[in-house]
Amino acid sequence: AQSVTQLDSQVPVFEEAPVELRCNYSSSVSVYLFWYVQYPNQGLQLLLKYLSGSTLVKGINGFEAEFNKSQTSFHLRKPSVHISDTAEYFCAVSGQGFQKLVFGTGTRLLVSP
Amino acid sequence: EAGVAQSPRYKIIEKRQSVAFWCNPISGHATLYWYQQILGQGPKLLIQFQNNGVVDDSQLPKDRFSAERLKGVDSTLKIQPAKLEDSAVYLCASSLGGQGPDEQYFGPGTRLTVT
Is residue A29 pLDDT above 80, yes or no? Predict the structure, then answer.
């Protein structure tokens, strides 16, 4: 079975500063990894995904993530955040097969001016 | 392209009452998912349909929760009777389906409060 750990429940950062949201996973098989964003009172939107190939994945809104198999991590980064990036971010893992997603507990990114 | 539709957006009920949520997936999507998202937690899969068949319902509390997707299109999730701990956002998602890692598209969710 897969599991995901997001150690930071909340990350405060100033506008235009860089940010990293941490995600670690555990799985005994090959996995697919995802980052989703959830704005208040909205559903989840896919930011990026790692399926195979290059370990550096670029997503929407300037976000990127790096898959590190030896450290079982998939940290999300953005070099310069905006106020509009304030939201909840969820890391998720899926094994191959019928697409069941297992989510972490989420990290709330708070961007202040 | 229309997204995943859910209704109602909000519902308040008393414990022991029943409630139903409706989801209409993106046209042509074979796979439909219901997730429960309790405040402060990530979404948890309740049930997954492939067309009108159940693929995974291992985390569905079957003594009180039921779901159906009779014609392989829209779906209904029911809770009867509700408990206080059922207060959560219920998210519906859909995907094209198949063995590949296709993207899940989420609806806005239904926020349920049980008093």
Answer: no
